[in-house]
Amino acid sequence: MHTTAELTVDAAAIAHNTRMFSERTAGQLMAVLKADGFGHGSLAPLVLANGADWLGVTSIAEAMTLRAEAPAAPLLSWLNPLDADYEAAIRADVDLAVSSMRQLRFVAAAASRARRAARVHLHLDVGMNRDGAPRGEWAALCEMARLWQAQGSIDVVGVMGHLSSASDPTSPETDRERMIFDNGVRVARRRGLSPRIRHLAASAATLTRPDTHYELSRVGAGLYGIDPSRTVALRPALTLTAPVVSVRRVPRGSGVGYGHTYTTSSETTLALLPLGYGDGLPRTASGRAFVQLRRRRYPVVGLFSMDQIVVDVGNDGIQPGERATVFGPGTSGEPTVAEWADWAGTLEHDIVVGVGARVHRVDRRTIPAAAAASAAIPQPTGLPEPIAPPEPSGPPTSPAVPALARSTDRPTGSDRALPRRKKNCAAI
């Protein structure tokens, strides 16, 4: 008998979802594996074996971990501070998104130390007002990038943006932001840049707005069975269960938990499960959530505690050692991640990434041996320690400095900017 809560990852579901998105997008597919694969763990070999062309994460630290799992896969990191270890990323052939002229100077300086050109994706803020270069600074950023590219420090391979309202297929914001993005690409080209990869769509737009696909779509939540647009029957990949550790009979009028926010309306049995908000269950779902035992739903009662929740199981004879399903794919009537998000007033993403480290992970994945062997090659050693450089100087005024060397052990430059694949884009 298991004595802890368990989170089971269904690799077959992730493989199915990856294949579906690979067929759905008109261009190539980037599997977004940030935040430990949205809480699902190490997935690079699995998604690459099932149709993903690129991998994407936010930080360089995450990218270096993925590089160990997939040495040859195109890999992008798009959210880094000025003092990030750009040199190590460049040496590992990690593409870098750049959102400001100041950041570009740091990347170019790191490329000089690495003696390799940095592969750069210029990031335009099309409407989110968070990451990405503001439109008023975009032309100047493109001009600076042109100068650094002429010098040989960088190779501008892409332009990227992020849509604010793609979860609503009818939102006029998507049309407006796509026009801003297209204009940004035109500005880059007028400044002498030739970005070969444009990417704007995430999961929702990949499903509902083919006009935003361009050469590459970035899909994160959808790989794990979360559809922000709620238009496609994806397969959820997580199941969270916990054992009943104790039961007790209580009379009518018994208060439960802190503040007695729940009082029993009749004599009943209360079952205790050993997980709570310390394990990622949102306390805002108190008084709303259900779990499943014996293929029947029972209410979670009282306020959630850090380490435990209480379930009113009535008179059904539930015993210690029986296992409750907190959430799962819903195929057997159990609560789903989407329901938990509704009960908590949050996003499904919040539920899956929030499951804590105390919860035991059970990894049910079956990767073909050949695919796993080809993707999971040990990481090359000898990368330099992080360097915190002084503020770099501005871009050169002429291309007099010799072009920096490029790596020869992984695809670079146009080798990674593959032509669009012909895909079956029929509705799924």
Question: Please, could you describe this protein's structure?
Answer:
Residues 237-364 form the Alanine racemase C-terminal domain. Its cofactor is pyridoxal 5'-phosphate. The modification N6-(pyridoxal phosphate)lysine is found at residue 34. Residues 372-428 are annotated as: Disordered. The strands form four sheets. Strands 8-7-6-5-4-3-2-9 form an eight-stranded parallel sheet. Strands 11-14-17-16-15 form a five-stranded antiparallel sheet, with no helix packed on it. A four-stranded mixed sheet has the order 18-10-1-19. The protein is of the alpha/beta class and 428 residues long. It has two domains: 11-229 and 376-415, Alanine racemase (TIM Barrel), CATH 3.20.20; 238-364, Lyase, Ornithine Decarboxylase, Chain A, domain 1 (Beta Barrel), CATH 2.40.37. It has twelve helices and 19 strands. The longest helix has 19 residues, at 172-190. The relative contact order is 0.17.
